[in-house]
Amino acid sequence: MIKLNLPKNPYRGLKIFCKKCNQDNNSNCKHYDSQVYRVRFHVPGSKKSVKTRKLNAINYADAVIEAIEFEKELIATDFTTIGSTKSENIIEEYQGNDYSIADAVIRYNQYLNGQSNYAHLKKNISPGYKDELIRYCRFFCKNINVTEDITTFRVKDVSRKEVSNFYKWAEGHYNEKTFNKCMAGVKGFFEFLMDVEEIDMKNPFRKYVLKEVVGTAIDTITKQEFDSVLQAVDNAYPVLKLGGKGEKKDMYRPYLKQAYKLFLLTGCRREELVVMRWSDIFGFDENVKFMYIENIKVQRIKKGKKILRPIPITTELMNLLIEMGYNDKYMTDDYILCPDRKMNVQSFMDFLSKSFTHYRKGAGIEKDYSLKNLRKTYFTWVNKAMGDDTMVISSHSTNEILKKHYLDAKVLSVIKKGALEIKIFD
């Protein structure tokens, strides 16, 4: 095994290429037995097209001689190599980034994690959404891997054939709405390769037929249905059978009923509720109090800009908070829900979702309710009481109203009104 080397200023276009990494001049590559000298020459008159050849030389001096001969051959044929027996090892490529489909997904994952070299290109999305996008890309890779080796199959080689095969696969695995999300996700992956990685190619997913999604009504949960879920926490069989080999999981926790009520009475998203603290509670006076929590989703969209959402503390919500320890915990920095939790935030959110689905089924409710439906139910009833002022409480407006806990007078009156008038299921 001979380690190839290049001087500080090598001959123009001469690289060390690894056949396993499928990459030139990779400083981290240790596949010395798979490395060869390779030369690349730009095709005159083209934008990014180049001609490359893997060389037989095992030392730099011989590689330079081969590179010069190759360049002369290209000039003699005006860079037209088709049909030339001497040009069997010549490959037409493009300058700039070029990856195998597997490597490209790795780069995309880094990009979605915010690991971009350019500040203006750093993504700020939720871990769940990132995982969803990468999951679609991995399914696409798995689909290609049936007939091709994804570690060497280049992204520029993806054709209508691969798109068609994946389209048919997705049709058989997803409903219309998720199908459209899946296809859009992979399309976005190729847009990243073109726009960020600057790979000179057309997006193979630029044209496909979307599935028609039939509009559905906003499903709000009724009082009877919600009460039956709470009863199921006490009475239904708590053990969930998982998809593994006989694996089971106990879904019961003593705080679950309080958690579901907290979702219903605040309209919070999971990521907001699990980090809610007692110190997020403020008061106008002894009778009217409210919470101010970070609207994490909106902050993410606005790239970290602080956006807060007011939650009027109604009589129902205050009674729940007292039950959960308000009198002892008020103004402390403890989490409101399960302060002694052992799970990380993502695991805790996932458990709350799965447990609600488990007990919803245990209650015999066939509708596909999830924690999202508790948020929809909350804002449906808020809108009934508040009308157009609902947007202040949902923070879907662009108002920046909190400066050192100072409230705009109009917003203050809206929150007071909400605390007095919002009632769920009434």
From TrEMBL:
KW DNA-binding (keyword) present: yes
GO annotation terms (biological process): DNA integration; DNA recombination
InterPro entries noted in UniProt: DNA_brk_join_enz, Integrase-like_cat_sf, Integrase_catalytic, Integrase_recombinase_N, Tyrosine_recombinase_XerCD
Coiled coil: none
Annotated ranges, domain Tyr recombinase: 216-421
Molecular function GO terms recorded: DNA binding
Domain of life: Bacteria
Record keywords: DNA recombination, DNA-binding
PANTHER family, per the entry: INTEGRASE_RECOMBINASE PROTEIN MJ0367-RELATED (PTHR30349:SF41), PHAGE INTEGRASE-RELATED (PTHR30349)
Family: Belongs to the 'phage' integrase family.
Listed name of the protein: Tyr recombinase domain-containing protein
